[in-house]
Specification:
With about 325 residues, this protein is α/β, with parallel strands linked by helices. It contains eleven helices and twelve strands. The chain has two domains: about 110 residues, NAD(P)-binding Rossmann-like Domain (Rossmann fold, 3-Layer(aba) Sandwich), CATH 3.40.50.720; about 180 residues, 3-Layer(aba) Sandwich (Rossmann fold). The two termini are about 20 Å apart.
Length: about 325
């Protein structure tokens, strides 16, 4: 059995991959350019991948391939329909990052709501010492208590964020495909109108692409904080940038982008100097504990497959 790992660097350089050796021959590539994918997987029985796109064009020559393991929960980079037609199983790693994504979501919300960057800079620049005044209270910041936190997508991550929001004293409302009784579920327009903080945690599908666009931003409160921890394509990035720059929203946080890393032509390049923006490099999922859980799940998925079982198979 040949296992090929195409982009090991996405899991960091502090994860031990030796558990794979018990399954057979292993080839590990730190990263793989699109032009090299087909050649590297042509003899593989199992492929482990995070961000590399796997479609019919690169998969057609991989005649031995039986299993694709994704080191992520989302699998929008995999043509699952083509894989199903070929009899290639696709297994993801659900739930491994719920705690750390919730942690980073809350951290970004706290940073923006409390203007921590500006207060920190005031002290670190020496201006606090020079002021001769014991405290500084501008820019004005607000409590989470009593605010409404709208959560788009209510899977494991959305639920973890809801727990944090509730602990901070927020009222939680949720937009999800299938409403549940445990929390107040509303349509996307109602959520946009009522929420003081909005965080996005839904998968990217044909139904959620550009879900948050100029029409939805127009419904939001002027001082709302909007945070995307899902996928870059769930909101219209140009519309999001315009909403921030034009003052239609109060703050913007994001960890995911349609192009990663984004270049100078990306709409968010115009936001880099803004105090009410917090952009992070797709790191919310990647606490050390989460990455270890992720890889352990991949190993478990392979073992189950070899034993004739299907674990976390999505097609």
């Amino acid at each position: 059995m040949l296992i090929v790992m195409l982009d090991a660097s996405t899991l960091g350089d502090d994860i031990d991959f030796s558990a794979l050796n018990s399954f057979g021959e292993v080839k590990i590539y730190e990263k793989t350019a699109p032009c090299d994918v087909a050649e590297r997987i042509k003899n593989a029985d199992t492929v482990i991948v995070n961000k590399v796109k796997m479609n019919g064009e690169v998969l057609c020559s991989a005649e031995k391939l039986k299993l694709i393991c994704i080191t992520a929960t989302g699998y929008d980079n995999i043509d699952v329909k083509y894989c199903a037609e070929r009899g290639i199983k696709v297994a993801n790693t659900p739930s491994y990052s719920s705690f750390c994504v919730a942690q980073v979501t809350a951290s970004v919300a706290c940073y923006l709501m409390t203007h921590l960057g500006e207060y920190r800079d005031f002290v670190h620049s020496g201006l606090y010492s020079e002021s001769g005044i014991a405290n500084r209270l501008v820019p004005v910041y607000h409590e989470f208590y009593g605010k409404t936190w709208g959560i788009i997508g209510y899977g494991n991550i959305g639920k973890a964020v809801a727990n944090v929001a509730s602990a901070l004293g927020c009222n939680v409302i949720v937009n999800k495909r299938t409403p549940v009784a445990a929390v107040r579920c509303v349509d996307i327009k109602t959520l946009a109108k009522e929420a003081d903080i909005i965080s996005i945690h839904c998968p990217l599908t044909k139904d959620t692409k550009d879900l948050i666009n100029k029409d939805i931003f127009a419904l939001m409160k002027k001082d709302v904080i909007v945070i995307n921890m899902a996928r870059g394509g769930v909101w219209n990035e140009a519309d999001a940038a315009y909403a921030l720059l034009s003052g239609k929203i109060g703050g913007l946080g994001c960890d995911v982008y349609t192009c990663e890393p984004f270049d100078k032509s990306h709409p968010f390049s115009k936001l880099l100097e803004k105090e009410n923006v917090c952009l992070t490099p797709h790191m919310a999922w990647g606490a050390l504990e989460a990455r270890k859980r992720c890889f352990d799940t991949v190993v478990s998925n392979i073992r189950a497959f070899l034993d004739g079982n299907e674990k976390n198979v999505v097609n």
